[in-house]
Design goal:
The structure holds 2 protein chains of 2 kinds.
Chain A: H1 7-42, H2 44-55, E1 56-61, E2 68-69, E3 75-87, H3 95-105, H4 112-120, E4 128-132, H5 135-143, E5 151-160, H6 167-170, E6 173-174, E7 185-186, H7 189-193, H8 195-199, E8 203-209, E9 215-222, E10 230-231, H9 236-245, E11 252-258, E12 264-270, H10 276-279, H11 283-291, H12 313-322, E13 332-334, E14 337-340, E15 343-346, E16 354-356, H13 358-363, H14 367-374, H15 379-388, H16 410-416, H17 423-430, H18 440-451, E17 456-457, E18 469-470, H19 476-491, H20 498-503, E19 511-517, E20 544-551, E21 558-564, H21 574-587
Parallel strand pairs in A: 2-10
Antiparallel strand pairs in A: 1-8, 2-3, 3-4, 3-5, 6-7, 8-9, 11-12, 11-21, 13-16, 14-15, 17-18, 19-20, 20-21
Chain B: H1 13-33, H2 42-61, H3 64-69, H4 71-88, E1 90-92, E2 95-101, E3 104-106, H5 108-130, H6 135-153, H7 158-174, H8 180-199, H9 202-212, H10 223-235, H11 246-249, H12 261-292, H13 298-322, H14 340-357
Antiparallel strand pairs in B: 1-2, 2-3
Helix pairs in contact in B: 1-2, 1-12, 2-14, 4-5, 5-6, 5-7, 5-13, 5-14, 6-7, 7-13, 10-12, 12-13, 13-14
Classes of the chains: A alpha+beta, B mainly alpha.
């Protein structure tokens, strides 16, 4: 296809090709200009924003968590300083060698594989925390400081719990679980439920950073705001005293509340634990705690549910009075047992109480009197009065695993056991056994309801919550009869807890009711008998000892609800403890 | 070998003036890239410029005839240089691109562009004196271009290699190859590219995908281009002002003094400054090109047109990279990117252009 052409023709071709190339060049320039227009004019705001985001670094500074105090401003949970070994990659190229050196100098048992993996992508200007530093470790480190260019000791804050007796109420803190959470947070009890109240607001340091994250200058600082403090109704001295009164080898619980406003003054459970070990990351202790079959994390005061035993009898009596089923003066003859159908229901006193009226029935805790009453009672009346007086309720006071318990009714049995109600079950329910399940805190509230005449203050832990009353008023006469009888339990001879006023006459005078919470039905006739032959029964099958009392008996101010597991009758174990605690509360005016 | 001294007064001073302006803008830009400091780039680049000036004037004073006669020698010298680079070269940043000559690191590939254009100009000049240009006659320059392309591409320096190949093709096109051949070539390349895609290794496909969408790998391969676009985009219409570019001063932009120097400029001087810069380079391109229309000698025309095009072409490729319309392959911005070899070779090109613009074609110069 070649053909000859003159030199002049070829020059023309060259010039024509010039134009083509110039035009292509111009078109390319135009495309580039259009693109620049798109970037710099049309999308200017988008890129400007990106550029500002690029250089702005917002560093959050952790806020101080609010403190928790008892009712007298004693610190129960606060913040204390904590020291950590922190490595800064930018300070030395040999930072990893230094970490190994640190580990051999101070036995930190670091996981090098894990650390090197996490360090790899870590910003070189942000410190990476290796481990907590104890005082001995800090001293050792300071002596050899010249060896380490990239490792520093940095102070930060941790939660501090001065008294472990409060761990089961205050709870503890845990590590953040979501990426949106920056700091440790409350994960149990009040620390959890008051998280928003306590946590405060992180401070912000706005600074201009370069591409490596190094701060060039600080632009503005927004200071962190400390979380709100929390004042509790608890009393430090009472809580500590009550804990000391709990037998160390027994599981049990003591709750003390104020009659006038429902304030929980102390709430102990044994065994307990020390929330500090979570903050100090003492992993061995934490593991032991979680594996402990005594369940120290379980607060028996509000998570522990037991049949109330005889302390429930005032409810049965009140239903009898309200429904006109009994005349308080009318006597029933207790011959040691009562029969319903072909079955005998035994009184704890084998040989019987003889002639018994209502007051004597409560004072001496006669079961037969209540069996006879129960034969006329509709169980649903018991259930509805129980609910009115504070049982069968889950108090919303910020505690984890607070339960509702159980007050049986016909409807309940049909729904959950798919059986109809038997009259025999009413008999044992009326003396507080059977399906009944109440917590020590609920029992304290029940007595508060009785002492307050039906309308009772809802229990509270937060001192700043206003006192709220609930429930239905009781007939004044009925209330007087019951309180009279409860006073007689301790103050009059033959009362099941009369021993208290004899052995400690100098103590504040109290009223109350003993109870025995049955673990297993052994010999019915042996219940509540001081002669209880404990040695014959295996420890874990022994009944729980229950007592709910109030002081002073003529002008009640405090209620103490005590349960000691597997300890036998209420009068022998729980009642003396309750008496001491009420005396302590009264004398110290908590 | 040299022309008379008085011919220095016949230079195209407008072109010299534009060259100086662009170099001065480059200096200001390197000064701002260092956060308002002459050290380390601006001062070094100025020293190089002054150091290269004698060379610049030497080339201006060369007889065109001398250049014509020694075209093949230059080509062979450069070829030796490229092979030496591959064998004894100094390795930096994963590539062997430099050889050490008298204490300087020299990037031979930069000079191979000049030698190739000069060689091809002579080849087509001689061809034109006798015959026409078909495919067959274009094969030798094509082979030479491809050899250069391969020698540079395996350094590896794909950017420079592509420029070399493109310049070779532009010479062939400009010299008057029948239009049918380039059109067929483009057609073939376009139709087989989907097949080529399947032959690419996954990492190569990955690179192309990241070019098409840098957000696929924002902290890795896509980082450069994302940060560069942020710098340029945040410049806006008027720019952030001299020394006010945060992207550059805070080190968000990697290679800001070399391949991404335009982003530094554009962040500070905005769309207005960028358009002015494009205009300056376009005028700089056109001045020698206008001269070619008055010339009849093919050698002169090719030298003037293609070498002038080379500077403008590299300029366009470079800023297209920084604004994300071409993949990042590593092409310097003439007179503005920091680097000795690029500066020296572009100064030599300008010297050649000034030299050839002052030619008075009264007689047939070359035989």
């Amino acid at each position: 296809m070649e053909k000859n052409k003159t030199s002049e023709d070829s020059i023309k071709i060259l010039n024509r090709r010039s134009f083509i190339i110039i035009i292509v060049g111009a078109i390319l320039s135009f495309i580039v200009s259009l693109r620049l227009f798109s970037l710099q004019v049309i999308n200017f705001n988008f890129y400007k924003k990106k550029s500002v985001e690029n250089k702005l670094s917002i560093k959050l500074t952790p806020p101080l968590r609010g403190d928790i105090y008892d009712s007298k401003k004693n610190l129960l949970a606060g913040s204390s300083s904590l020291y950590e070994f922190v490595v800064f990659k930018n300070l030395s190229k040999d930072h990893f060698q230094e970490i190994k050196k640190l580990d051999s100098l101070i036995k930190l048992n670091l996981n090098f594989v894990e650390i090197s993996k996490r360090l790899k992508n870590y910003n070189e200007y942000s410190g990476f925390s290796l481990s907590r530093a104890s005082w001995e470790q800090i001293v050792k480190f300071e002596k050899n400081k010249f060896l380490f260019n990239s490792i520093k000791i940095i102070e930060s804050k941790k939660r501090y719990y001065p008294y472990q007796n409060f761990s089961q109420i205050i709870g503890y803190m845990g590590q953040p679980t979501q990426s949106s959470e920056l700091y440790s947070k409350g994960v149990f009890h009040l620390e959890k439920s008051y998280e928003k109240h306590l946590k405060g607001k992180p401070g912000k340091i706005f600074s201009e950073v370069n591409a490596k994250g190094k701060t060039i200058r600080e632009i503005s600082i927004e200071k962190s705001i400390k979380g709100n403090d929390l004042d509790l109704t608890l009393d430090l001295s009472l809580q500590n005293y009550a804990q000391s009164q709990l037998p160390t080898n027994k599981k049990g619980s003591i709750v003390v509340i104020s009659v006038s406003d429902g304030s929980i003054l102390s709430m102990n459970s044994n065994p307990t634990f020390d929330a500090q070990i979570f903050e100090d990351r003492e992993n061995n202790k934490i593991r032991d705690l979680l594996n402990d079959d005594q369940k120290p994390l379980f607060n028996r005061a509000f998570s522990g549910f037991y049949p109330p035993g005889s302390v429930f009898k005032p409810i049965s009596a009140l239903v009898g009075l309200q429904r006109n089923l009994i005349d308080p003066q009318k006597e029933v003859f207790c011959k040691g047992h009562s029969s319903l159908g072909d079955r005998n229901y035994y009184c704890w006193k084998k040989k019987g109480h003889g002639k018994v009226n209502l007051k004597k029935a409560i004072k001496e805790s006669c079961d037969v009197y209540f069996y006879e009453l129960a034969k006329k009672i509709n169980i649903d009346d018991i259930a509805s009065l129980s609910s009115n007086l504070g049982l069968n309720k889950e108090y919303d006071i910020g505690l984890s695993n607070i339960g509702k318990g159980l007050v049986p009714s016909k409807k309940w049995k049909k729904a959950f056991l798919e059986e109809s109600w038997y009259q025999g079950e009413t008999l044992i329910t009326c003396i507080g056994q059977g399906y009944n399940q109440t917590s020590p805190l609920q029992l304290a509230t029940l007595y508060s309801a009785i002492l307050n005449g039906g309308k009772y203050p809802i229990p509270k832990l937060d001192k700043n919550t206003p006192t709220r009353f609930t429930g239905k008023s009781l007939n004044n006469e009925h209330q007087k009869i019951i309180i009279n009888s409860l006073n007689a339990v301790v103050q009059e001879p033959r009362g099941t807890a009369h021993k208290l006023s004899i052995s400690n006459p100098e103590f504040v005078k109290i009223g109350g009711k003993t109870g025995t919470s049955q673990v297993i039905r052994i010999k019915e006739s042996e219940r509540e008998d001081d002669q209880y032959k404990s040695k014959e029964i295996e420890e874990r099958f022994k009944d729980h000892s229950v007592f709910v009392g109030y002081a002073p008996y003529d002008k009640p101010k405090y209620i103490a609800s005590v349960i000691i597991e597997n300890s036998g009758s209420g009068s022998a174990v729980a009642a003396p403890i309750a008496h001491k605690i009420l005396d302590f509360a009264f004398k110290n005016n908590v | 070998m040299f022309r008379e001294f008085k011919s220095i007064f016949n230079l195209n001073w407008i072109y010299v003036f534009i060259l100086l302006i662009i170099f001065w803008i480059g200096e200001i830009n390197l000064y701002s890239a260092a956060g308002g400091s002459l050290d380390p780039w601006a001062s070094n680049q100025l020293i190089r410029f002054l150091f290269f000036l004698p060379m610049f004037f030497l080339v201006i004073m060369l007889e065109p005839k001398f250049i014509f006669n020694f075209a093949e020698i230059f080509l062979i010298l450069v070829l030796i240089g490229l092979i030496t680079t591959l064998i004894f070269g100094y390795t930096g940043m994963g590539a062997t691109r430099w050889i050490r000559i008298a204490g300087f690191n020299l990037q031979v590939s930069e000079f191979s562009k000049i030698a190739l254009v000069v060689f091809m100009a002579k080849y087509f000049h001689k061809l034109n004196a006798e015959k026409t240009i078909g495919l067959f006659k274009s094969i030798l320059p094509l082979i030479v271009s491809v050899i250069f392309f391969i020698l540079v591409a395996i350094q590896p320096d794909l950017g420079t290699a592509v420029i070399i190949l493109a310049l070779g093709l532009v010479v062939i096109f400009y010299a008057g190859i029948k239009l049918i051949y380039p059109l067929i070539s483009i057609g073939i390349i376009l139709s087989i590219s989907p097949i080529l895609w399947t032959f690419l290794k996954p990492y190569q496909q990955n690179r192309i995908q990241i070019f098409l969408n840098p957000d696929l790998d924002p902290l890795g391969r896509g980082y450069h281009i994302i940060q560069s676009k942020i710098a340029i985009g945040s410049g806006g219409l008027k720019g952030n002002g001299f020394l006010e570019g945060s992207q550059s001063s805070l080190d968000f932009l990697p290679e800001k003094e070399t391949d991404f120097v335009f982003a530094i400029f554009s962040e500070q001087f905005g769309f207005t400054g960028s358009i002015l810069l494009i205009s300056l380079f376009f005028i700089m391109f056109l001045i020698p090109v206008l001269k070619t229309f008055k010339l009849t000698q093919v050698f002169n025309k090719i030298i003037l047109f293609v070498l002038s095009f080379k500077i403008f072409f590299e300029f366009l490729i470079n800023i297209s990279m920084t604004i994300g319309i071409l993949p990042v392959v590593g092409v310097a911005l003439p007179f503005m990117s920091y680097g000795g070899s690029s500066l020296l070779s572009n100064l030599i090109i300008c010297a050649l252009l000034l030299n050839f613009m002052s030619i008075n074609e009264k007689k047939r110069m070359f035989s």
